[in-house]
Amino acid sequence: MISRFLALTLAVSVAGAVGATGPAHAASAGARPKALAGTSAKPYDFNGDGYADLAFGSPYGTVGGLTSAGFVTIVPGSASGPVTSGKVTLSQSTAGVPGASEAGDHFGWALTSLDIDQDGYADLLVGAPDEDTTDGTDAGAEWIFWGTPTGLTGAVSQSRNEPSNGTEGPAAGHRFGASMAEGDIDGDGYTDWITTAPGAAFFWYTTTNPVDGVRAAAAKKFPASVHGTRLRPKSGGKAVSAAAASSMSYFPAIADVNGDGAGDIVMGFQNPDATDPADRSGFEVLPSSSDGSLPIATVSTTITSLTTGDFNGDGADDVAVGDSGETGGTGGHVQIWPGDASLSLSTSTTITQDTAGVPGTGVAGDRFGYSVAAGDFNGDGKDDLVAGVPYRTVSSQAIAGEAIALYGGTDGLSGTGSQAFSQSTAGVDGAAEANDEFGWTVSVLDVNHDGRGDLIAGAPKENGTDGAVSVLPGTSTQVTGTGSWTFGAGTLGVTGLDAQIGVRTGRTG
Asked: Tens digit of pLDDT for each residue in 310-320?
């Protein structure tokens, strides 16, 4: 297993060393930060009106004729659902945004949101892992867009290249900004975030507090409390070289897996180049216990996606991993490890399309679990899970895709009461078509502010490479297609730009 030492109190800190360096040039309901004096906005509520807004990354999108420069589209939420007339598109060509759009930057590859300065307006973080910087080709960078009463604009946005601590630092091929996650790592009530640099087998986490957040906003700089660690294999603790990490992928989350009130770092990984098969894929939980009493918990397993949520309602977040391959069940599977005080991760439950209660039958190549996300659809206090099945045949249409909602309970997730949704579901606009890939990405946000999570599923190959997204509301009992919203590139004004709306969706975690 991969075993690296990380106690958050001993992690390398480069506080004060990172500023708004302009470039020279892609899921958890746990460890949510406390609302302080009513000022902290929930993730993705960019205008502070109480409704989560939608954020879609289009990393392959064309900007000013530059292919795969990338852009992000924002759609405000409201009591009646997403307000497409209020859409905003952001890119490096937007006025006020540092840098310039370049072919192959993949701006919008990763997204996450938190209220850094605790001003009641959520902020948006955007990664462009193939941004060329003074540190080299594909060194990568990230941007922050500050929330305001009128939402997001390019004004006063900032960018940051990969940090450095003197011995570890940025370089060509690190792909800083490839994935992100938000949550309260240290249990102080303020949201923090992770940004990965998979080309270096390294990730950075930035911790925030109200003073640093306000200072950062006033100075138009990122918060300065940045920490980092490199992935290490089990043999001798020797750091993985950048060359050995050339094909690595990370799946980060922040969640309270041991139930102590502070978020733990959950890091899924794929490292096909690892010599030891046990090091090639799996996840680790890096506990935030201040006394260092809990060791890093490591699980070796195949992985395509990862999220976290308290599916059994016991106060400790559980880890759910999707594997769209055929190793754990025909057509893919989802595996869930319950959290507990000792981080034992000793047992797990596997759900496939052949599990009792799950609609349909497993078919090789369906890719069940290609994407996963967690949230409480019915407001019962236990998290539920949505699993994307983007290659599922629906209404005789190959690779039309669907998303399956699985519900939590006292015993955790099961197939009982689960539902399958697609563009052939009653109430969902559009029609299932071959190669739409509905369910390529999934997320859960409360778009209409009714206290229940809404299921969001992307179909990035709708109408070729235009893409579309469907938002299905949660109710007091279950998710429903009735009253759902579906919109695509035409509605968002990005037709013909390889937008692939739904290939990246903003999510919590």
From this structure: 999 999 999 99
